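In the design runs reported in the main text, the only information available to the sequence generator was the tokenized backbone. The following block is the verbatim input for one such run; it is reproduced so that readers can re-run the procedure and compare outputs position by position.
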């Protein structure tokens, strides 16, 4: 049962990121990078932070992939490259989640925190944090889009995903 819930969250995460990135990529570059008072400064900083933290957690869970050294790292300055990396990471997250069984999710997993301290948590708790963190900062990025355009960006509600509202097709030529 828990595997189905986390698989849904991973698919929702990909869907919501596609909808958010469609709005972000439609902005003029100046607006996209404008500091507007959110924790990571701008929409660009917030979207980079989300990629940073997914990479940190996926590296902790799998032992593979990049491990950024700062939570405010700018992994990609070019937003099309950032979007490509985001979409690849979303697919990777789906694959990782779908490989777990319910018994795997209940297993304790050891890792080091960003300060180097050893820690251990159930995999289910790690995934709950990862998806909750995504939702938290994606909400900030969604607010950035509202502030920068004066309009309501596309809905990111889980219910919209569950009802089959489509994700946009994004061309990153």
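Verbatim output:
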């Amino acid at each position: 049962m828990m595997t189905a819930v986390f698989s849904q969250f991973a698919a929702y995460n990909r869907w919501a990121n596609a909808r958010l990135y469609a709005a972000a990529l439609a902005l003029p570059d100046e607006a996209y990078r404008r500091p507007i008072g959110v924790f990571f400064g701008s929409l660009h900083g917030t979207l980079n932070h989300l990629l940073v933290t997914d990479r940190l957690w996926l590296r902790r869970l799998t032992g593979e992939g990049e491990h950024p050294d700062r939570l405010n790292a700018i992994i990609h300055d070019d937003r099309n490259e950032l979007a490509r990396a985001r979409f690849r990471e979303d697919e990777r997250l789906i694959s990782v989640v779908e490989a777990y069984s319910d018994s795997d999710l209940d297993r304790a997993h050891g890792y080091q925190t960003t300060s180097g301290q050893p820690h251990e948590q159930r995999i289910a708790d790690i995934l709950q944090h990862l998806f909750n963190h995504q939702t938290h900062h994606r909400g900030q990025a969604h607010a950035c889009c509202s502030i920068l355009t004066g309009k309501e960006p596309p809905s990111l509600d889980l219910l919209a995903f569950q009802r089959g509202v489509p994700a946009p097709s994004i061309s990153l030529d």
